[in-house]
């Protein structure tokens, strides 16, 4: 299984808008995506109010590529979030059970 960690930093002043997108669009989308075994969303905290993340566990690389395409090492961006986000990072790991 593949563990995918996706992190974003919002643009200053866009925290509330991104939080709405994160809770109402991104989390439901990821939870119903075929090939995902588990989704662990992480919302902003007081000490880092602009940072959000997802830890996703995918069945395998094929399932991940089916969702994001061959360039799976680049962050998959929903057009609704593009103007809200200052930076994104993505990392992949083999899940150890």
TrEMBL record:
Highest rank taxon of the organism: Bacteria
Name of the protein in question: ABM domain-containing protein
Organism of derivation: Gymnodinialimonas ceratoperidinii
Organism classification: Bacteria, Pseudomonadati, Pseudomonadota, Alphaproteobacteria, Rhodobacterales
């Amino acid at each position: 299984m593949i563990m995918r960690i996706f992190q974003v930093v919002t643009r200053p002043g866009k925290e509330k808008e991104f939080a709405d997108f994160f809770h109402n669009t991104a989390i439901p989308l990821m939870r119903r995506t075929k090939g995902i075994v588990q989704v662990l969303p992480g919302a902003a905290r007081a000490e880092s109010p602009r940072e959000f993340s997802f830890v996703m566990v995918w069945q395998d690389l094929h399932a991940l590529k089916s969702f994001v395409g061959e360039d799976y090492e680049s962050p998959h961006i929903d057009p609704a979030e593009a103007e809200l986000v200052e930076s994104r990072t993505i990392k992949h790991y083999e899940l150890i059970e």
